[in-house]
Design goal:
It is a single chain. The protein is an alpha/beta fold. The protein has a single domain, classed as Alpha/Beta hydrolase fold, catalytic domain (Rossmann fold). It contains 10 helices and 9 strands. α2 packs across α3. It comes from Botryosphaeria parva (strain UCR-NP2). Keywords: Aminopeptidase, Hydrolase, Protease. This is Putative prolyl aminopeptidase protein.
């Protein structure tokens, strides 16, 4: 029986960079994990992208690098990041690779207050094809959050929250209309981490996604809940790191929040 820890790949949401995960990443690395993080091309692109193809490619390249010569990989997705990742991991799961005579691959998906959809689904479809009140959409088809402190970071220490707000970049709006071609959560064991005090994707919406998955062949075998904002990797990094370690197969007690 191998005791080698899987490699972790982190996929940020819209507007965010890998640096946003820093408090949680540091805890994971201190626990012996190798962590790769994706820089989404749709974040800060000038001119903005017309679709999410570049995001899908960047995620896939990072996952392939993490697999390397045969590593097991757990892919952790936040918010928007859950959708392009579905397409990116097609054929990279451990079962598919094993059938092709290859070692390693994606053994689990972790959705951290993240969207997922059936084939043909897209982010704006969850919103009734209407911008949310806090969407600040520009004429060049870039999108920024009008109220990031309240929407993303209301429970994050103020200094850390303002630091992250300063690092946010405009997102390519058209990626929110790109449609998924592969429902990875039907094929790969999955964990969902529900953020119960989320102002961006309310817990009710997250629970609705899970209810739909249960009726539609989803492989969500684990659901954990935390009273936190949309950014638990900043507000409760100890809990988040523990949840990710559990998703990787460790027997880690739940940290009180």
């Amino acid at each position: 029986m191998t005791t080698t820890k899987p490699t972790i790949v982190l996929v940020p949401g819209a507007w965010h960079s890998p640096a946003s995960f820093a408090p949680t990443t540091a805890l994971l690395e201190a626990s012996g994990y190798t962590v790769h993080a994706v820089s989404l091309p749709s974040v800060g692109a000038n001119p903005p992208l017309e679709n999410w193809d570049a995001d899908v490619s960047a995620i896939r390249t990072t996952v392939e690098s993490a697999i390397g010569t045969g590593n097991d990989v757990v892919v952790v997705m936040h918010s928007y990041g859950g959708l392009p990742t579905q397409d990116a991991v097609k054929g990279l799961d451990a079962s598919s690779r094993s059938a092709s005579g290859e070692r390693g691959g994606v053994i689990r998906l972790v959705y951290l207050a993240a969207f997922f959809a059936d084939e043909g689904g897209y982010l704006m479809g969850f919103l009734g094809d209407q911008d949310l009140p806090w969407f600040d959409r520009k004429d060049d088809r870039t999108l920024s959050p009008a109220t990031p402190l309240e929407t993303f970071y209301h429970d994050v220490p103020y200094e850390l929250a303002t630091k992250n707000i300063a690092s946010l970049q405009p997102h390519s709006y058209q990626t929110f209309w790109s449609k998924t071609g592969y429902a990875a959560w039907k094929h790969i064991p999955s964990t969902y981490l529900v953020c119960e005090d989320d102002k961006a994707i309310p817990a009710q919406s997250q629970d609705g996604l899970l209810a739909g998955a249960k009726e539609n062949g989803g492989k969500f075998d684990t659901v954990e809940r935390v009273k936190a904002s949309h950014s638990p990797f900043l507000s409760v990094p100890e809990w988040t790191a523990g949840a990710l370690r559990r998703a990787c197969g460790e027997d880690v007690p739940v940290t009180a929040v």
